[in-house]
Batch of 3 targets.
Target 1
Amino acid sequence: MNNIIVNLHKEKRKKLNVSFYLAHHDDETLFYAGLLLFLKKNKNIIEKINIIIFTDILTENTNHNTQKKKLNNFKKVINKIGNIRYKCLKISNKIVNDGCKDINIFQDKINKINQNLAILKTLPNTWIPSIKEKKAELIVEREKIRNEIRNFKLKGKLNINYAIYVNKLDKIENKLKSDIIFTHNKLGEYGHNQHKLVYILIKILKAGRWKNKLIYTPSNCETKTCLAINKSKKQEFLKMYDFKDTEERKNIWFNQTLKNYSYWSSNNFEYYSIFS
């Protein structure tokens, strides 16, 4: 990744605007702390780092005081890195979760078709004369749903108006003029639906207005596009997110992050994939 950014700087012949479109406050650290520190170190080729967060941190959790502390810790992290412009779209947790319901609706439809296809594959073609035709129908139906997911054209069945958020993002990007963008991958990294929702919104833009944008995501496997990082330094930033009041509970969030998301929190490399 360091070569990609350095070569992009040479190609553009100017300092780069680098933008991160992410679901939550802390995603920038878990998935991209190593990269952010690399950008800080190479400020001679970086004009500005932009972090755009989707969810309103104060509605992520019912404990308002805890969320205020998390927001303060986020600000400490980005201030320590420096040269970061931060914007929160303040999309409420309810709206984001409604969008996630749409993802589940789409996925349930595809899963049902896949189950039917699996059953049909176990049957001999001679058992039902029209079995080949039925398979073909299911495959066509599955592709139709996939297209609906990509284009969000399930009219009357969506919980939120995606055009609003797509246009918001495009309006922001028109001002930022990012040379390279980082966001979530299609798996939502570890399956987080809110991460998947951000991916889908970017996917819509990438298919049209952002078709020429250079976009990367975290990779869920080792790739050649990687960055050697200081794992201990990354964990220092992650630890800044601990916000429990008592000494006994102080490192719970940090320890859970190391245990549950070790691929990103305890790795000597950050791996990336081109957006697809």
Target 2
Amino acid sequence: MDNKSGRIDIVFNIVYNITMKTPDIVLDTNVIISAQRSKRGASAKLMSLIGTGCFEIHLSVSLALEYEYVLRCQNNVLRLTQEDVTDLIDALCALSHHHKIYFLWRPQLRDAGDELVLELAVAARCSYIVTYNRKDFAGAEKFGLKVATPKEFLQEIGELK
């Protein structure tokens, strides 16, 4: 018997309940941008799985505003209208778990612009930060976080070989 959170196996008349926690993740802005640049890459595949139960995404106001700002700054390159950007941000907000950040861990990372991603991941008790800039999140492991590229994360959850 399969279900969303695990699987029950019967081997030699012994019942095993194999439960796997759905990964909780924070997406770095570069993953959102990359998904808009190419509809065939790992980041686009990852974005297409949002809301399917394969993983849960987490969002704070500051990160949503960063997504919006960067998308609007690059809307000509990405060939997005203002309405497209609004729709994308609205969809991410609707499909994510929202968090207020009550404490700051700064400084922890070499790039101050990435601190809000780390703070959200810690506050939300996420297991992953998904980014193309792994080196920018050196030190995240001391908070129990794994840092993975979209391809690595998709492989980890069995959505990509």
Target 3
Amino acid sequence: MERLREHMEAAILERWQDCPLAEPLARHESPRRQSTDLPRPVRGLRAANKVRVPAIRVVPVPEETLACNHIVAALPDGPQRDAYRDLQRAVLQRIDEEGMRVIGVTSASVGSGRTLTSVNLAVSLAVNAHRPVMIIDFDLDAPAVHELFDVDLKAGLEDHLFESLPVADLLFSPSIEGVSVLPARGTVGAANEAGRSRQLEALLEAVKRAHPEKILVLDMPSVSNWSDEQAFEALVDGMLLVVEDDVTEERDYRRALQSLSGGKLIGTVLNRVPSV
């Protein structure tokens, strides 16, 4: 495990020389479900050449829920909040320098805190950098973004991709200014099917045209679950790889690096580093 940590720390220092993570990032624990009264649905956004900008429904998320589910970037203070802010600054520098719009977040294996990293990165971009962000849950086999915000779903991204349900009926804002969420409800095998088609690519292009100011953070399946590396990498402008100390195996980390060989990898996030 020590060798893996040394390899990962070397990768982090290579990619984040100007802005290393200051503090260890938290590991996502499955949150406790709470009942949520969803506001009325909205109209408008469709993945088409001409996209109408909708008024997104707002789902109030109490601060206790954010804290319980470790969305620390939305909280007033704390060392883990600072760590995500450092990550956000490093990512934002690459976004601005290279004109990136879509940032994918993946992991070498499941259970590495990938979704928590995606959400906290997006929230930090909105809260600290004042950049509007849309979180898109593309882990269609095991989506968890809506669970972190404690929102019950009747439909999700896959219903737009495969059933043509309007995106506006799916979007919500978790009462954090500048943050919108396109959730998924979970359909086995749907991520690889969507990755091989042009449906998701068309959706991303439509959202970018409708919201030219937004950064899109795509919470992707773990690399170990990808069936077509080139198709998945083609969806994003830059990719973050999340690994977790004492959880990610060295063979999985090396395999993930080999899979992400298309030049899109912009950094590695090492989660759950023991405090020194």
